[in-house]
Amino acid sequence: MTRVAVLGGGAIGSSLCALMWQAGHRDLVMIGRPDQVEAIRASGLRIDGALGRLAIPLPVSETCEEPADVLFLTVKTQDVVGALRSVGKLPASTILVICQNGVEAEALAASACPGASIVGAVVNIHASYLTPGCVTISYPGPVVIGRSIGPPDAAVEHIRVLLDGVLPVTKTANLIGVRWFKLIINLNNAFPAICDLSFDRVLNCPGVAQYAVRAMREGLVVASNLGVRLEGLPDTTLVLTKVVRYLPVPLAAAIVRARATRIARRGPLLGSTLQSLRRRRPSEVTHLNGVVDRLAQLHGQVAPINRLLTTLVHRVEATGRYLSPEELVAECIEAEGNVA
Fold first, then answer.
1. CATH 3.40.50.720 assigned to 4-173
2. Are 12 and 127 in contact (CB under 8 A)?
3. Which of 98, 134, 105, 96 is nearest to 11 (CA)?
4. Is 123 helix (H, G, I), strand (E, B) or coil?
5. Long-range contacts of 160-165 (CB under 8 A, 24+ apart)
6. Residue 340 pLDDT level (bands cut at 50, 70, 90)
7. Closest listed residue to residue 305, CA positions, set 194, 159, 187, 153
8. From CA 210, how far away is CA 205, in angstroms rounded?
9. Structural domain boundaries of the chain?
10. Helix 304-319 crosses helix 289-298 at what angle (to 10 degrees)?
11. Model pTM?
12. Model pLDDT for residues 216-273, shown as the tens digit of each residue
């Protein structure tokens, strides 16, 4: 048996624990915040959605009390270093699996745990976590794993075997390409967060989807400047980026709206950024839209929509006031006008 610890009890960490438990893994512990730990100890990890209604008697702890063979890190990117330092030095035999959005987490983890055996995972689970102890899993989607540099090795294969039967899992020799592809899609997380609406509702408001396309185009330009070879996910191919890059914006926006509507049939998709805001927790927008803005500047370019989205999410964090879709579109128009 492989002893598994999941560090982070949010939507992804809780979903991963639930899916592993359902697949028969019992040498498993979640390490979470006090409110999450208390709720699960009292009533189990309560799951609904695609798995049905369950209450899982999941072992939980506020600290990593015993060494694990595999440690899945599922906190937000801004919490990676602090979470790993709280664990202390990992045994040489422990495989650390990095499950964050964005493109920075592997480097942050390596700085916090020099010499650790790090496997990257790009996770496409759609889940909502708004109340301690309760998670809705609307789509237990695939995970892609690999080393940050180089082909899959024995550690990657070990994680593939561990997750076999838990989630659809594939290996890649181009993890950074998959991470950038997911980042470009996740740039749209800001729109629901700013307006307090689900993806399908906000993207079907007049004008919003066109700026979603423009935000993704800015991400594609930055990835191209860095020489990244994009690689799609098993359930989302590179066709999406070709639509965004080459079609006229209104036509690409119509396809993006249709995709959001189709995904919404699985259940309301809020996005991780809006979930953070609703829980009064810091969002990871600095590590999503903010990365595109910063890297564009390093290449002497501008990413006005991603810069604006970063600013607006932080404004909502600070004030608690969401914008209407009409206000958001007006802000986008002004941001583009200032650049022109």
1. yes
2. yes
3. 134
4. strand
5. 162/2, 162/4, 162/70, 165/23, 165/24
6. low
7. 187
8. 10
9. 4-173, 180-339
10. 140
11. 0.95
12. 999 999 999 999 999 999 999 999 999 999 999 999 999 999 999 999 888 778 999 9
